[in-house]
Design goal:
Length: about 200
């Protein structure tokens, strides 16, 4: 049973319950009329932030799923790159040119076809991550595949979660392998993650 979106699950609840709750909150609050304006405001905030922090050389971004903020407008100003999910021998993400994403992944997002030319990590100055929800400590409630956590595990690059403000929460559940992000971007602006003794 999914809790009402006004009631957060218990922090000790299974992540599946949290994901169900976040999807329901997204459905209730972020209809097709509201999301374009939220996406535009997030893009404006991101452009200011990336420019101010000199992070415009190349940005790894995501092709939005339904209900996610669409950040594709950034491509008009910043060189964007995207990912392809690889499942064998170990689940991982490969990096590619943004415009090479021409097929649907099994998750429903656009991605480059198999065999597309890869780009090195050194081409990337910042990473923009989607998620079902985030918290103010920079923790991300993802979709359960762990792809981004593996990518970021040993990569020292600025990371920015992208979410509507309605899904930026005081706390979301986290496990030892979850990599906390440096910043979270909403339609209100980009904020640094609040590091505490518990989250560091």
């Amino acid at each position: 049973m999914v809790l009402p979106s006004s009631v957060l699950p218990d922090l000790a609840a299974d992540k599946t319950q949290w994901r169900d709750w976040a999807r329901e909150r997204r459905r209730e609050l972020l209809n097709a009329d509201a999301l374009p304006a939220i996406s535009a405001a997030i893009c404006a905030a991101l452009l200011d932030f990336l420019d101010e922090h000199h992070l415009t050389r190349g940005v790894l971004a995501y092709h939005a799923l339904p209900g996610e903020p669409d950040i594709s407008a950034l491509q008009d100003v910043v060189p964007l790159f995207t990912t392809r999910a690889v499942f064998r021998p170990t689940p991982s993400l490969t990096l590619h040119a943004w415009h090479s994403a021409t097929e649907r992944s099994r998750f429903g997002a656009m991605q480059p076809p198999r065999g597309s030319p890869e780009v090195p990590l050194t081409a990337i100055s910042a990473v923009l991550l989607p998620g079902l929800a985030f918290d103010v400590q920079g923790r991300r409630l993802g979709y359960g595949g762990g792809f981004y956590d593996r990518l970021l595990q040993n990569w020292d690059v600025p990371t920015i979660g992208v979410t509507p403000a309605a899904l930026l929460l005081p706390q979301v559940p986290a496990e030892a392998h979850d990599v906390p992000l440096n910043y979270v971007a909403t339609e209100v602006g980009v904020r640094a993650a609040e590091r505490t003794a518990q989250s560091s």
